[in-house]
Amino acid sequence: MKSIKIGCQPPWYDDELKEMKKKLDKARKKSVKFENNIQLKNEFLDLEKLYRELVESKMSEYFSAELSSEVISKKFYKYVKSLSGSTRIPDVVYSDVKSTTKN
Q1: Which of these, 64, 70, 57, lies nearest to 13 by C-alpha position?
Q2: Residue 72 has pLDDT above 70, yes or no
Q3: Which distant-in-sequence residues (6+ apart) come within 8 Å of 85 by Cβ?
């Protein structure tokens, strides 16, 4: 069977995530096929949680390496735009600034 690649993968999606996704898909198929088996269902849910955590970790590592705390690059907004469909880039970006108000 030939797999078809649809769209482009995020830059943090690497071979480790591909392998984890394959394991997750196999576990999902088994849990659906044997729906009364609680152990298979739990294994699938555990793998799903691990996969989500790994994706978040890889994404976080990628953005922390790509972006400094002082400058948010055009590349970041290009990615945000691709997710949200928004075309507006803000005029001012505040980074790690806490506002204080006096009453």
Answers
A1: 57
A2: no
A3: none
